[in-house]
Amino acid sequence: MKLYYTTGACSLASFITLEELGLPFQAVRVNLKDKTLADGGDYRKVNPKGYVPTLVRDDGEVLTENSALLGYLGELDPKHVLIPPPGTLGNYRVREWLSFVNGELHKNVGPLFFPNIPEAVVAMARERIDQRLKYIESVLGQHSYLTGDQFTVADAYLFVVLSWFPHLKMDLAAYPNLKNYHDRIKVRPAVTRALTKEAAAA
Ligand SMILES: N[C@@H](CCC(=O)N[C@@H](CS)C(=O)NCC(=O)O)C(=O)O
User: Is 169 helix (H, G, I), strand (E, B) or coil?
Assistant: First the structure.
C-alpha cells in the first residue's frame, strides 16, 4: 500500500490511522505547489485531482478523499478498533463525524491558509468554525472521543485539523475539552510515530 501525503496536511489523518493499525505501507511525499513527487514524477498521474491524500492499494486501485480513505483503512482492522463493523449504527456514527470534520471544519479552516483571502470571508469562516467547535466542545463534555470512549478514525481527522490552528494564530483556549482532547491525542504513540515518519520519509 502507498500513501501519498504532504507533511502536516490532512493526509496526516490516514498516516496516523496506518500507524495505529500497524500496517506496512510506503509513504510518498507530494509537493503540492507544483504537484510533483520527490523523484520529479507528476503527482496528477497518480491522482488527477492534484490534492492529498491518495491511497494506492497493492492491486493498483486508487482511493482518494479523506473520508473514504479513513473509512476504508479503519475497516481493514479485523478487531474493529478504529471504526465499528460495517453496517452497524456505530459505523455510521463514525462516518457521520468524518463527514462533519470534512465538510464543516476542514473546509472552513483550509481557506484561512490562503494569504489574500478577504477579511469578510475570514470573519465568516471564523464564526462558522466557532459554532462547530462549540458543538464538539459539548460532545467532549460527555465522553473522551467523538463517538464515545474509543479513539476512532474521526478523531484522527479532527486532531489533524486542530493541529493547524497555531499556524493560523487560532487557539483552543475557549474550548477546554477540545484542548484536553488534542493534548491527549498528540501523545498517542501512533501519532508521535506518524509525525516523525512524515518529516523523515521521502
Ligand atoms: N476533498 C478532499 C480535499 C483534500 C484537501 O483539501 N487536501 C489539501 C491538503 S489538506 C490539498 O491537497 N490541497 C492542495 C490543493 O487543493 O491543490 C478530501 O477531503 O480528501
Answer: coil
The length of the chain in residues reads 202
Per domain, the residue ranges of the chain are: 2-80+190-200, 89-187
Residue whose Cα lies nearest atom 6 of ligand 1: it is: 51
Atom of ligand 1 nearest to the CA of 11: 10
* pTM value > 0.90: yes
At 87-117, the pLDDT tens digits run 999 999 999 999 999 999 999 999 999 999 9
Q: If you take atom 9 of ligand 1, which residue's CA is the nearest one? A: 9
Strands 2-5 and 62-64, sheet pairing:
unpaired
CATH topology assigned to domain 89-187: Glutathione S-transferase Yfyf (Class Pi); Chain A, domain 2 (1.20.1050)
Q: What own/partner pairs with CB < 8 Å and gap ≥ 24 does 108-116 have? A: 108/132, 109/161, 109/164, 109/165, 109/168, 112/168, 113/164, 113/167, 113/168
Query: Cβ(2)–Cβ(46) under 8 Å?
Result: no
State the CB neighbour count (10 A cutoff) for residue 201: 15
Which superfamily is assigned to 2-80+190-200 in CATH?
Glutaredoxin (3.40.30.10)
